[in-house]
């Protein structure tokens, strides 16, 4: 039950008002659900936003422009939000970068991913007039407070979206430094924001755009970027793109002692390290006594689903925390950081945790 009571009330009165007999009047989420039935934009605790424009960017990419309610506190270029989609009673959340610097509105540019039901449903169902629930803006992938004199922006595929918002921000500020923008896509027809970038570069001397088409140039690598931007070591670098490309750049910068000038946003798990073949480990679910096996390369969420369980989950990449549960005992590895933890009775995220011993979960 979420609090709807002022903190200054005496404890005894708050206990009384929290009585289940007063439900749902003392439950913020329940009140929001009642208000939603009257007007989908009304909410006391949730950010609700109406779609005011839908634009096609490429054959499989759309931009959705939303006007949020008063709960929206704005954003900083480069940040992202979680968007909720409900299908057959299952509410899922996915993280999407805000693709515009306009803080009065929310713009999300979404590429329809093969096999990803959420992006396919967004393309099929969201129309002008649709109302969505979203989180507040979050994330630290933003421009440095002290603007560098030279910037390198690497936007591959849909990774161009947060960088587009940053470019708009810099342009609005009248930035007069030096930006090299490497825009990667499979072909020219798949390049998101190609027209907007060309228009910006045409009248903004600070911006130089370089296209990289993997269908003809091969996949972008550290070596190919360094060849096209020889002074990369003198530039503060902002990067967003596929996991393999980013890992390649992260390692390239690290080998040359340049990690401090590389800033990136990762929407997905990094490539998993090869581990020695091992026997599957056993996971016991405390309340239900159900058992499932977890392989060394599986996240606990994947292992639980393979074992016939349906844990609550959302983004599957460690952002929304919908899959958080309590580990009663055993050892796990965080797949994002590589950190291992043996502590009993701690909260873990199933989607980014792998078993490193037999486990007991409060699941």
Automatic annotation (TrEMBL):
The reply on keyword Iron is: yes
- Domain FAD-binding FR-type intervals: 44-144
Provide the alphabetized UniProt keywords: 2Fe-2S, FAD, Flavoprotein, Iron, Iron-sulfur, Metal-binding, Oxidoreductase
Domain of life assignment: Bacteria
Query: What region holds the 2Fe-2S ferredoxin-type domain?
Result: 279-363
The protein's required cofactor(s) are namely:
FAD
Q: Which Pfam families does the record match to this protein?
A: Fer2, NAD_binding_1
PROSITE patterns from the UniProt entry = 2FE2S_FER_2, FAD_FR
Q: What family, per the record? A: In the N-terminal section; belongs to the FAD-binding oxidoreductase type 6 family.
* Protein name, as recorded: Ferredoxin reductase
């Amino acid at each position: 039950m979420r609090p709807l009571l002022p903190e200054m009330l005496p404890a005894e009165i708050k206990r009384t008002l929290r009585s289940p007999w007063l439900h749902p009047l003392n439950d913020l989420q329940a009140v929001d659900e009642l208000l939603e039935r009257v007007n989908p934009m009304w909410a006391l605790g949730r950010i609700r936003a109406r779609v005011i424009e839908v634009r096609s960017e490429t054959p499989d990419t759309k931009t959705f422009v939303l006007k949020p309610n008063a709960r929206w506190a704005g954003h900083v270029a480069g940040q992202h939000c979680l968007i909720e989609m409900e299908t057959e009673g299952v509410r899922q959340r996915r993280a999407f970068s805000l693709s515009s610097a306009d803080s009065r509105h929310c713009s999300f540019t979404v590429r329809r991913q093969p096999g990803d039901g959420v992006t396919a449903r967004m393309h099929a169902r969201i129309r002008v007039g649709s109302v969505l629930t979203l989180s507040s803006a979050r994330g630290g992938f933003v421009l440095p407070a002290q603007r560098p004199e030279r910037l390198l922006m690497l936007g591959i595929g849909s990774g161009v979206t947060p960088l587009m918002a940053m470019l708009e921000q810099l342009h609005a500020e009248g930035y007069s430094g030096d930006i090299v923008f490497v825009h990667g896509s499979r072909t020219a027809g798949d390049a998101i924001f190609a027209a907007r970038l060309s228009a910006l570069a045409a009248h903004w001397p600070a911006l130089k755009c370089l296209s990289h088409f993997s269908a003809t140039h091969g996949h972008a690598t550290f070596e190919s970027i360094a060849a096209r931007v020889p002074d990369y070591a003198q530039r503060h670098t902002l990067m967003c793109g596929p996991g393999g490309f980013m890992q390649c750049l992260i390692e390239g910068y690290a080998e040359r002692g340049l990690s401090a000038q590389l800033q990136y946003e990762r929407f997905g798990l990094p490539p998993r390290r090869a581990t020695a073949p091992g026997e599957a480990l056993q996971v016991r679910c405390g309340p239900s006594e159900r058992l499932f096996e977890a392989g060394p390369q599986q996240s606990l969420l994947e292992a639980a689903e393979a074992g016939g369980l349906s844990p609550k989950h959302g983004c599957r990449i460690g952002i929304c925390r919908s899959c958080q549960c309590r580990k009663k005992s055993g050892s796990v590895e965080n797949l994002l950081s590589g950190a291992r933890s043996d502590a009993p009775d701690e909260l873990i995220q199933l989607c980014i945790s792998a078993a490193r011993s037999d486990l007991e979960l409060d699941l």
